[in-house]
Amino acid sequence: MFKKLPIIDDKNPLIRTKSEDVKLPLSDEDKALALDMLEYIKESQKEEIQKQYDIRAGVGLSAIQIGVAKRIIAIYFEEDGKTYEYLMANPIVTSISVKPTFLGSGEACLSVPKDVEGFVYRHQKITVKFFDILKGEQRVEKVSGFLSIVFQHEIDHLEGILYYDRINKKNPFQRIPDAIEL
Ligand SMILES: [Zn+2]
User: Fold this and answer.
1) Which pTM value belongs to this model?
2) What's the 57 CA to ligand 1 centre distance in angstroms?
3) What's the pLDDT at 16?
4) From ligand 1's centre to the CA of 161, what distance in Å?
């Protein structure tokens, strides 16, 4: 059964909160919250759910977006016939590529009702250490491309950072040499 989560927007000061590490192993309450977040993201991609519940489609969600300052992130999307599904706690970026990447159409966020235009430069590749909530174990994974952008967008939320903070205010569509446009 779909649970419409109370997503807060960027007018709510809570969105700027720095989230705290989650205690491991996860409590039943934290695990239930994480699973609800993943379910929400998955379901949000179905047109009938968007219409029925008046929600937007998303590919990632951080707990702070529902007002919970815990380092929990859910990611789900399909790309080129492959499914990317992550439910993680306490992610730490352990290495980054120098090469930047960005979405040519810009980023969007479930907590930002009106899209802010401009390029958001991210690292093309990052290595992330996290607790995999679905598998119940610590993992290290190297991610690249769109997935890397989604990871960085969501990890930013844990620090209270929104994607538009990273847009050059004076020149939102500034081109950086060598950056890979997606
Ligand atoms: Zn967001």
Assistant:
1) 0.97
2) 12
3) 98
4) 9
